[in-house]
Amino acid sequence: MYEGQCPAVALSRAEFWLSCGWAECARQFSARAVILGPRRNIRSARDEAIDTTLERDATHLLFMDDDILVPRTVLPALLAQRKPIIGGLVHKDNGDPLVWVDAGDGEIPYYSHPRQGAFECAAVAAGVMLIEVGVLKKLRPLRRWLFNYDETGRTMDVRFCRMARGAGFSVWCWPDVLCQQVQH
């Protein structure tokens, strides 16, 4: 998380940590929240979170961006799916889903995605993404910036998922964890 989040999300995060029984989550999953602040370049923040995760011998890394409203059940819901990479279904303010399908010549928004149950996809938004640490261990030696833009102009979320799929990992979306991107 970042220091200095936008007010709606800061309230959402406070409500999230208090109402989801964070103490119980911490005991059950040995979860630790890491505050990365003040807010800065998303690329460097994601990489710092990856390095911290690998240094602490964690099993998973959960990204929750400061512009995404998440349900309080996000952590147990995503962990229960036991997927290498899984994200909640994030929608932009305009309603467009931030989940992609492979169109053969690249990834395109997946408008007709399933509405229930986990489904495999080409990419999910990193704004609510749970990654097994084995994925990070395999990808980190390949590239310093795991989250970065590339020459195709795709988002860093899509690029990361493309790299992971290329390394043999599957990417999933869990639409039961419905999330909303908000404007700052």
Describe the protein:
This protein is of the alpha+beta class and about 180 residues long. It has a single domain (about 5-180), classed as Spore Coat Polysaccharide Biosynthesis Protein SpsA, Chain A (Alpha-Beta Complex). Helix content is about 35%, strand content about 25%. It contains 6 helices and 9 strands. Strands 1, 2, 3, 6, 8 and 9 form a 6-stranded mixed beta sheet that branches. Strands 5-4-7 form a 3-stranded antiparallel beta sheet. The longest helix has 14 residues, at about 40-55.
Q: SSE order, as H and E?
A: HHHEEHEEEEEEHHE
Overall number of structural domains:
1
In the predicted model, the low-confidence regions spanning at least 5 consecutive residues are none
Helix count from the secondary structure assignment: 6
Please report the first level of CATH classification, the CATH class.
Answer: Alpha Beta
SS-based structural class? alpha+beta
Main β sheet profile: 6 strands, mixed
